[in-house]
Amino acid sequence: MIQPLPDLLIEPTVRAALAEDLGRAGDVTAQACIDVDAVMSVVFATRQNGVVAGLACARLAILALDPKASFEAVVEDGASVEAGAVLAKVTGNARAILSAERTALNLMGRLSGVATLTRAYVEHTVGTKARIVDTRKTTPGLRHLEKYAVRCGGGVNHRFGLDDAILIKDNHVAACGGVANALKRARAFAGHLTKVELEVDSLEQLAEALPHGADVIMLDNFSPDDLKKAVALAGDKVVLEASGGVNLQTVRAIAESGVQVISVGALTHSAPVLDIGLDAV
């Protein structure tokens, strides 16, 4: 059961997308062709197998233009569906429904695509202890929705932004003059609820970092063999996260190395849109 996002967090994105599409004069095609009080019934349906996410975006897009419309979700976010499955049934003002159609489909298709790709990665790691997590490589303005879609697909969220965890990467290390100094300064700055993660790019750097108290160490572009060596070297001292070079062909070997976390930028920056359509009934 996926905990849905509150409408309060979704509405600004939906309304901005509607405003972008409606422009300065509204939907002139609907105004020209459809009676002002015409009513129609439609369904949102998938054209492909996949995992659903973003039903609330479609609902809020419709209701923003016709507050009296009926929107009945047939499935829930996180559900696996086959091509042809009906996701939601809508009845309302015809102009409003058709004006909201593209915004609803853009958002739901995008989010369902993220959820579908995430589910594929998760299924490739079944039987290991590794968890699939996302990154900050998200569409500007859609991060909260795309990270929600990752959860719908069975993944787990990494940090949401620069403000909710300390992640020391190679350029931070260079600016600080080394791993030890970077971690010392991070620990002095961090509050008791702030996690500190360090990125390393070699087993030697990992060995240097281990005594200095990172909560998580990111192993950047390690081979599966070096990941296994890193797991043996670190023991249970720290959470290890594999990152870089992760795809559906490599993720199983990475997971079998024993790392606890695998971060995958592709979940949000390369997920294909799930083909969803709106059909009159």
What does this structure look like?
This protein is α/β, with parallel strands linked by helices and about 280 residues long. The chain has two domains: about 5-115 and about 270-280, Quinolinate phosphoribosyl transferase, N-terminal domain (Aldehyde Oxidoreductase, domain 3, Alpha-Beta Complex), CATH 3.90.1170.20; about 125-270, Aldolase class I (TIM Barrel, Alpha-Beta Barrel), CATH 3.20.20.70. About 45% of the residues lie in helices and about 20% in strands. Strands 6-11-10-9-8-7 form a six-stranded parallel sheet. The protein has a four-stranded antiparallel sheet with strand order 3-5-1-12, covered by helices on one side. Strands 2-4 form a two-stranded antiparallel ribbon. α9 links the parallel β9 (about 215-220) and β10. α1 packs across α4, α3 (about 55-65) runs antiparallel to α4 and α4 crosses α5. It is elongated, with a radius of gyration of 23 Å.
Please report the first level of CATH classification, the CATH class of the largest domain. Answer: Alpha Beta
What's the gyration radius in Å?
23 Å
- Going across the biggest sheet, name each strand in turn: 6-11-10-9-8-7
C-alpha geometry? elongated
InterPro entries: Aldolase_TIM, NadC, NadC/ModD, Nicotinate_pribotase-like_C, Quinolinate_PRibosylTase_N_sf, Quinolinate_PRibosylTrfase_C, Quinolinate_PRibosylTrfase_N
Domain Quinolinate phosphoribosyl transferase C-terminal: 114-279
Enzyme class: transferase
EC number: 2.4.2.19
